[in-house]
């Protein structure tokens, strides 16, 4: 039987990475395991701030090593911004709890505007703070506007000494209670329009920084803070004008990729717990996992989870290989934020249907997973925002392929410095992709890949024969339904590429596409029912509902992989 691709702390050893990265990742796993499940669960239930984790990270210089670009690392060979190992750490932290991931995630975001800045003093200060064990924060959203960066009420007034005085509030700012550096977005009171934008570095310990409250009922601290006549010196200014706007969006491109790996980690831990519980429980004289519907739900959950990992791992390669002439990552990023995280919700729902009341128990990890998995698709730009962004790439992706050099697996210890010089956050319509059909052609012998390919080809035929009218293009509800179909084609492409690179078990790949065929059919049915859908489009939708190719022996072999998870991992008490 094929080895499970899921993270297992019992056997975790990221041999694909360099020695220091491997040591730090393993040390992080060992810290959580030695701390134990009871402490993990109790600290969550009692909403205790995770100072012990931050002490561990500071002692190991974990964030300093992983989040300092080589150019700012003072010659330390271990310091670099390496998306492959960052993704690995993000998955581990999600595996043990959203709060641990969240303090890392908002540190990533807080550093984004700094590492994109030409301000040498601010960069040196950030590097020093990381060495001292501090975390960072990203002061973008505001209560009246959310993350609408066109509308900010953080006002900066010139102080006649080359700096400003900042006054205003920020809302939903992680780490805002302790951050050594908060990257704050605002606008000059004396300059109208985009030229007035400013990104500056603030310190949560300054007397003009007032922490108002934690706005969520959780272990993590998601702050509301206010600045009152806060002195912004020239050396605190990170970006001005349009560059400040671009820094905000480009930070999101870099940092919010981590949503996918958090979702994966949460699902992995929940899956071990759910399968072990179900497989060792007897009801009505039968093992729970002997019921056909239970096997189907657990197999679907496993297939979806492995697909999440395949897509996300392959997306890392596109991030790391990006450059001014290859910005395909700008499609794959909202895919990880939207598609992978909503798949995470489906995985947990399937597991929960199996374990039922057990999923509410306070001493389980699952109880936390079921709550926290909901946040990932909703916190960092809603599903709808990300799907609307994905749709912008549809025409070029489907119809206008160009040649690109092959993108290899990228696990080498390189500094991903392009991510901090992405340039203006525009020009999405100019981004071109390699031919998506190639990955499908390479796996045409897999029955459900072939069936899904029929549906994908059908989508291109729909867009040629019955494209959205001008009115439909203004109807976001209609476009989002169409976007879900397109997103599945992109999702399948990277899954196939990664399956090829990793030699994924053929039965498991077929089972994954069994799920995708059903998902395409479900979204086609949804498109059929939309008020804005024309009769011709509705007829197309019904004509492209497909049954996956059924193979009981294949499904039984994949089930054996799921069954083998029982007892494979249980967190130390």
From TrEMBL:
Belongs to the acyl-CoA dehydrogenase family. CDD domains: ACAD. Keywords: FAD, Flavoprotein. This is Acyl-CoA dehydrogenase. GO terms for cellular component: plasma membrane. GO terms for molecular function: acyl-CoA dehydrogenase activity. InterPro entries: Acyl-CoA_Oxase/DH_mid-dom_sf (IPR046373), AcylCo_DH-like_C (IPR036250), AcylCo_DH/oxidase_C (IPR009075), AcylCoA_DH/oxidase_NM_dom_sf (IPR009100). PANTHER family: ACYL-COA DEHYDROGENASE, ACYL-COA DEHYDROGENASE FADE4-RELATED. Residues 245-393 form the Acyl-CoA dehydrogenase/oxidase C-terminal domain. It comes from the Bacteria. It comes from Micromonospora mirobrigensis.
